[in-house]
Amino acid sequence: MEKITQVWKQLEESVIDLGNKIKDDVFFRARLKFSFLYAVAILVGLTVFVITLNYFRVADLSLKSNIDNYADFSVGELVMTRTISDLESGNFLLHLSVVAGSLVGGYFFSSGFLKPIRESTEVQKRFVADASHELRTPLSVMRTNSELALMNIEELDLFCKKAPKNIKSEVGELKDSIKSNIQEIDRSARIIKNLLNLSHLDNKSYEMSFTRVDLHDVVVEAVKQLEDFAKKKKIKLVIVKDGHARVWGNQTALEEMAFNLIKNSIKYTSLKGRVEIKIEDLKNKVRLSVIDTGMGMTQGDIKHIFDPFYKAKTSGNYRDVSPGLGLAIVREIIKKHNGTINVKSILNRGSVFSVNLKTSSVYS
User: Is 109 left (phi over 0), alpha (psi -120 to 50) or beta?
Assistant: First the structure.
């Protein structure tokens, strides 16, 4: 019985992996589509060939007597009769094997066409990772220099209390300008950090160390970090726990996943709204749901919401919110954990992001 259960679990994992691969791997989807079109082309060509062959067989003078036997049939009807007869005979298996072979052949044949595109994509990914890494140092230097300049300006401000108003005004403007520069540097640093994280997660050779993780603790930590952000918009954060919450995963990665999900909901929720984080113990898995009372999304937006730097078309009322990499990182982290994420949304009413992760007991 235990062996049957193990086999069933392995089969379940294989199906989930295949589903995730079809959903997330654009090259795999392209190869499947190419194989399908290749098989359809072979099937159409084979059918045309058989019909043409039967046409000439029927039209042949040596088959005149055969045609006479089918006096009530037109030539076209006789051609189709012979074609169907061929298909109903042993030739049908031959045709089926040809189509199956073309599917397999098309799949492997497509790799040659897609190889240059795949290599180009890998080069772009390496460039993004290398460029992001190189930009971290100059940004750190810029921030340090800006902080020193701000300290000097604040000291100068103390000596300008008795200075003319125009000088005080210029000093104040300079101080605000430096503070704005520091904020933009911090924003750029966050983008670069996210680019590096996304690059690492997208790397198939990148392995995470997994252990038992309490998802409730992960959520509590994320909420602590986002409390000030939520208070600025007077948004109420609520945690609801229903049962067991231990999953098999990487603590740091799951904290980042929860942080980005909750932050995204806060960003797109109006003033005095509500964001509920619900943890449910289901059979062999734990579900983390982030439920907000935000603007919601259309089905078209949901299809692209996990694309890097995508901004929903319905987010016009949130012009101060810039698109980022948060949800793209969320998707990659969930993929590394062999989990799933689903999105349900109603326009102008809110959205629900549901993450399903396997419990630690599955791996015990």
Answer: alpha
Which among 58, 89, 120 is the end of a domain? Answer: 89
SS3 135: helix
Contacting residues for 325 by C-beta, under 8 A, at least 6 apart: 191, 194, 195, 197, 198, 308, 309
Q: What is the 3-state secondary structure of 56-83?
A: HHHHCHHHHHHHHHCCCCCHHHHHHHHH
Taking the complete model, does pTM exceed 0.70, yes or no?
A: no
Here the tokens at position 17 are 């992996």
Residue 278 CB partners (closer than 8 Å, separation 6+): 239, 240, 241, 242, 287, 288, 289, 290, 291
pLDDT attached to residue 149: 80
Distance separating the N- and C-terminal Cα atoms of the chain: 17
Q: Which of 89, 115, 134 is the last residue of a domain?
A: 89
Q: Range of 232's domain?
A: 211-363
Q: Please, what is the angle between helix 326-336 and helix 2-24, to 10°?
A: 150
User: What pLDDT digit, counting tens, does each position of 52-102 carry?
Assistant: 665 555 555 444 445 455 444 454 555 556 555 655 554 555 555 656 666
Does residue 340 contact residue 355 with C-beta atoms inside 8 Å? Answer: yes
